[in-house]
Specification:
By secondary structure, this protein is mainly α. It has a single domain, classed as Cytochrome c-like domain (Cytochrome Bc1 Complex, Chain D, domain 2, Orthogonal Bundle). About 30% of the residues lie in helices and about 0% in strands. α2 packs across α5 and α4 packs across α5.
Length: about 160
């Protein structure tokens, strides 16, 4: 029991730590390939940059602790990954509860739903991020293509 709590804490820290540095954020501009997005009715209805996501790549990103790391906080149907968190809701069946646009907004910027969230904004404009590690300043956590891949994967979970 104690070991599983320790591992959960490690997963959680890996999800949050890159955005939690003691250095104050300096103003930064989005990367040149940054795709602006618009929220309407708690959704981003259009795919970022018109990109098409690949659910297989999205599953890999969601399970990768150095990229999406969704398993740090959520239960997902990825049986080869033994450890998962329970800080966030289970994502099994998310596509039967949320529209594609809402799923996209959750991944892009969860703070639009819950300003107190600990979930990283995976595609928030870099100038809106605070306390970012120096080596990560001026970029998004995931690329627009990776966001669309994760959205494509999550929309298969009905």
């Amino acid at each position: 029991m104690q070991q599983s709590r320790w591992l959960w804490l490690c997963y959680l820290c890996a999800a949050i730590l890159p955005f939690s540095s003691v250095h104050a954020a300096e103003p930064s501009t989005p990367p040149s390939n940054y795709v602006k997005w618009t929220v309407k009715d708690f959704a981003i209805d259009e795919p970022l940059g018109g990109l098409k996501g690949d659910p297989r790549r999205g599953r890999a990103i969601a399970g990768d602790q150095h990229r999406g790391n969704c398993l740090a906080c959520h239960l997902l149907p990825i049986p080869e990954e033994e450890f998962f968190g329970n800080l966030g809701p289970p994502l099994i069946g998310i596509a039967s509860r949320q529209s594609v646009g809402m799923i996209r907004l959750h991944v892009v910027d969860q703070s639009r739903f819950n300003p107190e969230t600990v979930m990283p904004g995976y595609y928030r404009p870099p100038q809106q991020l605070h306390r970012v590690a120096r080596n990560l300043r001026g970029r998004t956590w995931l690329t627009a293509q990776e966001i669309e891949d994760v959205v494509a994967y999550l929309t298969t979970l009905k």
